[in-house]
Amino acid sequence: MNDGKLRQAIDSLDESEQRSFKKFLLSPFFNKREDVRLLYDYLTKKNVRKYPFEYHAISKYIYPERKMDEQKVRLAMTYLMRLVEEFMVQVEMEESQIERQRILTRAFRKRNLIKHFNQSYRKTQEAIDESPLDNLYLQLEKNWMTLEQYYAIKEHVRNQEMNLQLLTDSMDAFYVGSKLHQACILKTHEKFREHSYDYGMLDIILGFLERESGKGLMDKPCVALYYYGYQTLTGDNPRESFEKLKTGLQLYAAQFDKTEQRELYFIAINYGIQQLNKGDASFVMELYQLYQISLERGLLVENGIISQFVFKNIIALGFRLEEHDWTEGFIKDYAQYLDKEEEENNLNYNLAKFYFERKQYKPTLQLLQKVKYKDLLPNLTARVLVLKTFYEMDEWEILENQLRNFSKMVKRQRGMGYHKSNFLNLIKYFLKIIHMNPYDKEETQKLRNEISLVQTLPEKSWLLSKIQS
């Protein structure tokens, strides 16, 4: 048994869950071993949790009358881990009342308790009808409950009529919506990684939805929003699909759970970022509004953490729109949710951004010298800010050396997806700008036109602002 795995699992329980788990361990139905209860008690002591496992101390605590036996301690750890896992299943079941009720309904049918079954079936159907959600999960629950009704009637009331159309309708909605949902996941992954996938029956599904026969499914938000999400990522008219996705989210977001809402909003957000990188300034406000809605819905903090990329993007948008008060409030409210391991890096980077926007370049560089992220992309983003700062300080020789070293570093990297070409394009046009003759109107106009035509280019607006028209 891996001691780190057990400790991480226990630490993932909040205070209320830890109290409940202690009661769980006291139930003889789940646990009859005193050593397991004592092991949990020992591992959750405040003066023990921050130190490495000490098998001798643990053995002495849970087996006070015996000699040190590491094997017995490891066995107790294994039993405790199994009970933590079982407890987590119980917690998940409590949070999914429809699934829990449906499993109870099935249990009654399998035991030929028909009166119990009928009552439980009605209760489950009421819960489905009253649910604020109407997502893919609910389509599957509708399908399973229709199947339960079918099996019960087949086994006990052979001549009773039932609505089997719901069986195929709910499965169609679940399968088609799930296929589109997963296609969005794959397509997003393809954009960030140099990898391609076989999408199986997706083309057949897309063709079906675009015909009149698919209209019924497109009336379901759990299908339509993933369809527009996929078309935003890959369709012939992504802007139109983006607008339809955005409208659909305004109308139907409450029908999806938070994880699903987060995925759909990030499809829209990532599309907006790509358009902004192409130089479409209209997406500054679009993104600002999408991020604000996501914040209001509680979608950007996941498991107590906000992504450093999201944090930086929101701050950059706030600065660009000169929403300084709002941006300052955002930093104060959400800095606490940054990953603690990168807290200092994020603080230094965003303070550097703050000083850069106010043309205070020396403190900008001083802060950026302290920024050393574990991950590649945030390090590259910080490096770009260094380059911009040297440009503003007219440090041309240092800037050119930095650009050439940066280019070598990016070319060596693998697994960057489209980010690699984006950064190399940025370096290319950075070098062109510092070598151009600013008094040659024909040369500067030609370079402006060339940069304007580049489809995806980080810092495009900033680069264009450095070329006199």
Give an account of the 3D structure.
By secondary structure, the chain is an all-alpha fold. Among the domains are: 93 residues, no CATH class; 79 residues, no CATH class; 76 residues, no CATH class. Helix content is 73%, strand content 1%. Strands 1-2 form a two-stranded antiparallel sheet. Strand 1 and strand 2 form a beta hairpin. Helix 3 packs across helix 6. The longest helix has 28 residues. It is flat, with a radius of gyration of 29 Å. It starts with a helix and ends with a helix. 27% of the residues are buried. The model has no long low-confidence stretch (mean pLDDT 90).
What are its keywords?
single chain, 469 residues, mainly alpha, two-stranded antiparallel sheet, 25 helices, 73% helix, flat
Strand content: under 5%
Strand order of the largest sheet: 1-2
Task: Give the ordered list of helices and strands.
Answer: HHHHHHHHHHHHHHHHEEHHHHHHHHH
Helix content: over 70%
Give the distance, in angstroms, between the N- and C-terminal Cα atoms: 68 Å
Low-confidence segments: none
Give the biggest beta sheet.
2 strands, antiparallel
Please tell me what the overall shape is: flat
Structural class call reads: mainly alpha
Specify Rg, calculated over alpha carbons: 29 Å
Q: Taking all residues together, what is the mean pLDDT?
A: 90
Number of helices: 25
Q: What is the number of E strands?
A: 2
